[in-house]
Amino acid sequence: MTLTIGKVASLSKVTADALRYYEREGLINPAAKSSGGYRLYDNDAVRRVRFIKEAQQCGFTLAEIRDLLTLRASNAACCRDVRRIALEKKLQLAAKVKAMRGMSKALDRLIAACSGGSRPLDDCPILAALEKGQRR
Predict the structure, then answer these.
(1) How many of the other CB atoms lie within 10 Å of CB of 52?
(2) Of 72 and 133, more confident
(3) Which positions ≥6 away from 35 have C-beta within 8 Å?
(4) Are 66 and 109 contained in the same domain?
(5) Residue 118 lies in a domain
(6) Which letter, b or e, does each residue of 81-106 get, where b requires 16 or more Cβ atoms within 10 Å of its Cβ?
(7) Coil, strand or helix at 5
(8) What is the count of structural domains for the chain?
(9) What CA dihedral angle connects 40, 7, 23 and 52, to 10 degrees?
(10) pLDDT tens digits, 76-92
(11) Distance, C-alpha 21 to centroid of its chain
(12) Half-sphere exposure (CA, 13 Å, Cβ side) for 133?
């Protein structure tokens, strides 16, 4: 069964523009083109797009998703290979969370230093602290 880009978009809850983007990125390919030049997809395209969206929800980039899809199609790969990639992503996310916590604490300190009054901007402790940090 062949599906139009609109039908695939509807079934996978993405836009047709997103599907075109995924195609340009090599993540999906139309199974055929109609005589009028319209992209036609098979049922596997919906499954792939759902996979892409779920992987994005887990923090994977499109390049990493491409790698996962390549692994999935490989006869030489096994579950351990996918687990290794997932563990690497988890470590990356943990590092980002740690960095964001540090940023949040820095903002807490800046906010605490400012009473929020009607001082002129030249006396704003937040701006002063940011400028001081830029000179380091």
Answers:
(1) 24
(2) 72
(3) none
(4) no
(5) yes
(6) eeeeeeeebeeeeeeeeeeeeeeeee
(7) helix
(8) 2
(9) -130
(10) 999 999 999 999 999 99
(11) 13
(12) 9
**Closest to 115 in 3D by CA, of 125, 104, 103:** 125
pTM, rounded to two decimals: 0.79
- Under the banding of pLDDT at 50, 70 and 90, the label for residue 136 is very low
Question: Domain check: are 42 and 73 in the same one?
Answer: yes
Q: Compute the mean pLDDT over every residue in the chain, rounded to the nearest whole number.
A: 92
DSSP bridge pairs for 98: none
Determine the structural domain holding residue 51 and report its residue range.
1-77
Residue 49 and residue 19 in contact, taking contact as beta carbons nearer than 8 Å: yes
Which CATH number covers residue 44? 1.10.1660.10
Per-residue pLDDT tens for 40-61?
999 999 999 999 999 999 999 9
Does one domain contain both 112 and 67?
Answer: no
Clarify whether residues 62 and 119 are in a common domain: no
Judged against a pLDDT cut of 70, whether residue 23 lies above it is answered with: yes
Asked whether residue 84 is domain-assigned, the answer is no
